[in-house]
Specification:
This protein is of the alpha/beta class. Helix content is 42%, strand content 20%.
């Protein structure tokens, strides 16, 4: 990965990512993810339990989970700017005493002891940003406790093909590289990302010592508008606008997504793949 592009992207991203759910496409996506997390975490987690957020950035998922669980947390991320914002977020709600923060590459998490983590989450595709996903999963397997669970999210290869194929500015070379190498570059300002199918993500987990519990597509039917990817979160797509203004429509879309997003034959429709696995 180009380190300059990585630093530049996350410096800008850190300033606005916590406001992403003001756009109602992302608000709905967040709620679908949170439902999966709650289904796959124990109902009661005391202070003796530890959840690690791998590539957790500004810590917004730790903030969400801390409202529901009494456990302690670990935030592990490579971006200095994201972690700076995370400290501000934790301090603002008196959460800092329940969180340990580490800056580092997910491919070598030597700051974390073997089998010291009960649950590991990695939301909105950190594994798509790394150069060697297999090394990351080896580290996840090393640090997770026996029978511990990981909940891993990755960008979907089929969604990538669909998006590029329907973009008039895409080139033949982009499509060939996407299909042959499973990598994508959305624009000049974002890093090159690795893409996965349900099957390839599950296989990678199994190869590194995990037993698959369930995979989900997040979301499988709802499609974002181009404005939903505005890094400043100031633009609003037509679908985000409708979801915001029509509560009944929002609820019905969420109900349908929740009903079908774990169907084996539909998971690969997902914009992202979210897989839950247990250390075997």
């Amino acid at each position: 990965m180009n380190s300059k592009i990585f630093k530049s992207f996350f410096k800008s991203y850190a300033e606005n990512v916590d406001n992403a759910d003001q756009l109602f496409f992302w608000k709905l996506s967040d709620e679908l993810i949170e439902d999966v997390l709650i289904k796959n975490l124990s109902k009661r987690l005391s202070r003796t339990y530890k959840i690690l957020d791998a590539g957790g950035g500004t810590g917004r998922w730790i903030v969400k989970l801390a409202k529901k669980y009494e456990c302690t947390f670990v935030l592990y991320d490579l971006s200095k700017e994201m972690l700076k914002k995370a400290k501000e977020n934790f301090n603002s709600i008196d959460l800092i005493d329940r969180v340990k923060i580490y800056q580092g590459n997910l491919e070598n998490m030597n700051k974390i002891k073997d089998e010291s983590i009960d649950y590991l989450i990695s939301i909105y595709n950190p594994i798509s940003f790394v150069s060697h996903p297999d090394k990351v999963l080896k580290e996840f397997h090393r640090i997770i406790s026996k029978k511990g669970r990981v909940i891993i999210m990755a960008q979907n290869i089929y969604n990538g093909i669909c998006s590029k194929m329907n973009n008039p500015s895409s080139s033949v070379q982009e499509l060939k590289e996407l299909e042959q190498k499973n990598i994508i570059k959305w624009n000049p300002y974002t890093p090159t990302l690795s893409l996965f199918s349900k099957e390839s993500l599950q296989s990678l987990l199994e190869e590194n010592g995990f037993r698959i519990i369930k995979s989900y597509g997040i979301p499988i039917f709802l499609q974002p508008g181009p404005e939903d990817f505005d890094s400043t979160n100031k633009l609003k797509s037509k679908i985000s606008d409708k979801l915001e203004k029509n509560l009944n429509f929002y609820k019905e879309v969420k109900r349908i997504e929740s009903k079908y997003n774990s169907f084996e034959e539909l998971v690969n429709r997902g914009m992202n793949i979210l897989t839950v696995a247990e250390k075997s």
